Amino acid sequence: MQVEDLDPAHFDMNSGWATRMAGYLPGIGTPIKRYFSKYESASTSIDAIIDSLKAGQEQLKRDNITLADDQKAMRALTIKLEQRSSSAN
To answer: Residue 10 has what DSSP assignment?
Structure first.
């Protein structure tokens, strides 16, 4: 939801007379200043999401390596079982 709130298409950048006058008051600012202030406060959340996604990507890579090794071991075991089964007959 934070990312959607940062979409500039949903943010009114036009400043009318009242907005321009309010922009001179401390703490209120212009629409563009408010947008970037909102972006800065959300950037820590975005950075945390990116870090989490990178960690998840690394975990998936390790899991894929483990699964590939397990698959090779299972194939080797299957071949041994088939050989023993055919020699027993």
So the answer is: G
Q: What is the pTM of this model?
A: 0.49
* Cα angle 60-62-63, degrees, rounded to a multiple of 5: 60
Question: What's the gap between Cα 8 and its chain centre?
Answer: 20
pLDDT single digits (tens) 34-55: 666 777 767 777 888 899 999 9
Enter the tokens of residue 63.
């899991």
Residue 79: CB atoms within 10 Å = 10
Structure token digits, residue 74? 């299972």
- Residues contacting residue 50 through CB under 8 Å, at least 6 positions apart: none
Q: Using alpha carbons, list the distances in angstroms from residue 74 to 29, 62, 68, 81.
A: 65, 18, 10, 10
